[in-house]
């Protein structure tokens, strides 16, 4: 005997339940679709858009998006090409600047050697070129180059010596220091000279603390082939680098 409290679901009841679920789902979908359509229509009516024009725009939208992607890609390609052209142009400019600088150095060197071999254009004998000073990374440290030369028709071996000192202010007082005291590249008080055409004296110097340099005094003298002496006082002027002269 089957109890009235529990009755097994028959095949007919299960079918009715499934149909009810399907109908409910379809009704929900229809309601959502109707709401979406009414929402779009309300939006179109509110903005004054013609339905036909809206559908046409909706059809053109994917193509417009694809065209936008293509244009964005082309723009990126053009930007990359522009950046490459800019870098290439900068490299060309730097190369031209380096070539101009090299030509200027060679021209300066050529004038230097021409002056040695053509003394009729300048005063013959022992002479000094402008001192070159270049700042180093360490504060108070500088590189220097002093070039002494001989202009003559017949370049005989010249022997002599060169003495230099740096002058300036130490506090409020005038002060001067022999180059040999400031530079480890000079062993004695004077530099020995021995050359036929020119001699370059190069090294580094370190200034004392609180000393403000104003210039460099240089005296060069020769004992052979004849006695001569030349002296110059150069202002303390820095260069970015050494010139090609004397190299």
Write the layout of secondary structure elements.
Elements: H1 11-47, H2 51-117, E1 125-128, E2 132-135, E3 141-151, E4 158-170, E5 173-178, H3 179-182, E6 191-195, E7 198-206, E8 211-224, E9 228-235, E10 238-239
Please summarize the sheet with the most strands: 5 strands, mixed
**CATH superfamily (homologous) name of the domain at 123-239:** G protein-activated inward rectifier potassium channel 1
- Give the oligomeric state: single chain
User: What is the H/E string?
Assistant: HHEEEEEHEEEEE
Strand fraction equals: 25-35%
Query: What structural category characterises the helix and strand content?
Result: alpha+beta
| Name given to the CATH architecture of the domain at 123-239 | Sandwich
Number of strands: 10
**CATH level 1 name of the domain at 123-239:** Mainly Beta
CATH fold naming of the domain at 123-239: Immunoglobulin-like
- Tell me the Rg in angstroms: 46 Å
Q: Point out poorly predicted stretches.
A: 1-6
Task: Write down the overall geometry.
Answer: elongated
Q: What's the total helix number?
A: 3
């Amino acid at each position: 005997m089957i109890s009235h409290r529990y009755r097994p679901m028959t095949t007919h009841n299960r079918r009715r339940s499934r149909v009810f679920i399907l109908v409910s789902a379809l009704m929900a979908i229809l309601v959502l679709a109707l709401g979406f359509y009414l929402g779009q229509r309300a939006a179109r009516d509110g903005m004054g858009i013609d339905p036909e024009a809206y559908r046409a725009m909706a059809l053109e939208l994917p193509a417009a998006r694809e065209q936008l992607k293509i244009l964005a890609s082309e723009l990126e390609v053009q930007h990359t090409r522009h950046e490459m052209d800019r870098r290439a142009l900068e490299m060309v400019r730097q190369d031209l600047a380096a070539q101009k600088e090299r030509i200027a150095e060679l021209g300066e060197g050529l004038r230097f050697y021409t002056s040695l071999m053509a003394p009729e254009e300048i005063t013959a004998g022992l002479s000094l070129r402008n001192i070159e000073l270049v700042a180093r990374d360490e504060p108070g440290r500088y590189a220097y180059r002093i070039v002494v030369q001989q202009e003559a028709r017949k370049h005989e071996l010249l022997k002599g010596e060169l003495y230099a000192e740096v002058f300036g202010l130490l506090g409020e007082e005038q002060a001067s220091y022999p180059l040999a005291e400031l530079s480890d590249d000079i062993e004695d008080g004077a530099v020995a000279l021995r050359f036929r055409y020119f001699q370059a004296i190069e090294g580094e110097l370190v200034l004392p603390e609180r000393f403000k340099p104003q210039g460099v005094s240089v005296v060069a003298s020769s004992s052979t082939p004849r006695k001569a002496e030349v002296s110059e006082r150069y202002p303390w002027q820095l260069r970015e680098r050494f010139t090609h002269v004397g190299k």
